[in-house]
Amino acid sequence: MDRRNWLWRRKSSEISPADTQSSGSVSSHSERFSDEQVFKNQNTQSPEVTSKAMLDDKATDDVKSLKEKLVDALSQIRLKEDSVKQHAKVAEEAVSGWEKAENEVLAMRQQLGAVTQKNSALEDRMAHLDCALKECVRQLRQAKEEQDQMINDAVCKKTQEWESLKSEFQSEVDYHSIQHKNAKAEVAAFMERVPDLQSNLDALFTENLNLKLELLSLTEEMKIRISERDYCIQAAETASKQHLESSKKLAKLEAECLRLRSLARKAALFNDNRSATASSIFVESITDNQSDCGDKVILLEADLCKMGILEPKETEPGCYDSTSHAFVPEIGKYENEKAHRQNLVDTHVEIDLMDDFLEMERMVSVPDPESEIAFVPVKSLAAQPNPLEVTLKAELQCMINRAAEQEEKLEHVEALYTEVNNALSECQKKLQTSQTKLNKTEEKLEDVKTLNAEVNCALVECQKQLEISQTKSKEYEEKLVELKMQLALTNESRQAAEELAKAASAQKKVAEARLVNVEAEKESLLVTVRFLEGEIEKERSLSAEKLVRCQILEEELSRTKTEVESKEKALLAEYLVKCGNLEDELLKTKTELNQATSKMAAREFKVDQEKELEIAAQQFAECQKTIASLGRQLRSLASLEDFILDSEKSLQTSDDLSHRPEQGTDLSNLHSNKLRMPENDSELSIFQRPIIQVLYELEEAAMLHCQAT
Known about the structure:
With about 700 residues, the chain is mostly helical. It contains 12 helices and no strands. Keywords: Coiled coil.
């Protein structure tokens, strides 16, 4: 019914805003209409209708007051509708919270079932671990026997290996000592040879320096001679040019001489009947021509003297010496050019002479009437010897002699050039031989250096090998000392193990006494549990009456739900941690047993100790069983105590609520009376403290026993 009423209210609330909107729109339309009417009335006013206007103003004031009242009523209606909506939302939230609480209670029950299943699985696992422990003890015995055999075999092998290593090491030491001695002898021999090699090196360096100096001097001489050769070649070219010019001039002079001779012959054929004046004029002309020819010859000689070809006779020997030093031999390629030029000059001179002879014959063949007069006096002149011809012949002979001398000088210079070339080639050969010697000496020096480096490396390696051998010998000696120390330690540990076994037996007796005390405490706890169960039954009868009040606490359940979940999770985590700790302790015991087996492998035990080990393993298994049973009892006690505390606190809250009036139950009061879950760690520790102490003592005793074994 309540839900239907809420839904109906919801519909009314949904409809109300639209109605308010419609009413608001109607009021707005009415206001607009009244304003329009007022505006029209104002426009249509006249001074005659003032009384009607006053009445209209009063009506408008009344309408305005009514509108304001209507707006106030609408606002109140809206506020009431909002409050109704809020109440409906609160009711819906309460219903949803109740449904959620029911679902969460079901989920919690399912989780409790899962936790119980996990506990049963853990118990099964504990039983399986107990069986595995027994198998481990059996395997420990087998491993002990196998390890004893392996230790004996390993000791025999190690002794044999030690002896073989010792012999090998001794042989290596002898071999390295011999090598060291040989290396020392080689180094001493090499050091004796070092000064000889050094002296040879110094000598080679000095020879190399001397050869370099000679090479430099020869290169300078070569440069000087090459420059002289170039200068001589240039001088020879200029001389050859001047010789060609002088030969041309000589040919011209000979042609003029022939022409003069022909003229003299023609003059002798002239008639003697010519007048003295004519003959004197002719003689003057001849003397003028002769003087001109003499002047030309003098000028030619001066030119030749300037060029260095023709020089005065007084200075001929000195000039010969200077020219002999000035001229330089031409290269082989210029010899052909010289011969070719000389042939050209000879042919040119012959051609000029032939031309002059032909001209003279023409002049003789042509008869001249005027010249016949001059022939008579010239015969006497032709019969006289011509001094110009004599001088020209003498000069020609000198020129021929000088040309021959120049050819001899050229041959001499060519011979000198060949000698210089030969000397240069010999110097180059010597330089090459010196370079080869220098390269060989450098190679020898490098070989000596490499030998020295190799000897040094060999010495260093020998020293390193000696050091390594010494370190190895020291290590072997240290190993021997360590083995002796280990033997002494094993004997001491054996004695300590016997003492620990005795202490373990004493601690075992103490643990048994504590177990008796724990059983007595267990009986007292069972009595308290029965008493609490009776109280729980009484509280259940009371809780049936107070179920009605639980409806008031629905909101509180939704808030306390998170706390309950967190505490349950914490409890589950604690139980899982405890189970994990127990498993870890079992694993630790296994690892410790494995370590004990590894230690037992290095010792020799007697039959009495094996019996004690079996007894200790049985006692350890019994201790584990008691630990498992105590853990189960602790879990049952913890669940019972949690349930008792929850029921007690729920009763307290219900009593508090019954004393208070029902009208003042707000959310703030409900917060103060929340269901408080017990702090399991602090409350359970009162019961678990002695049991946990006993468990720790049992584990310590087992550990000590394992170490002793």
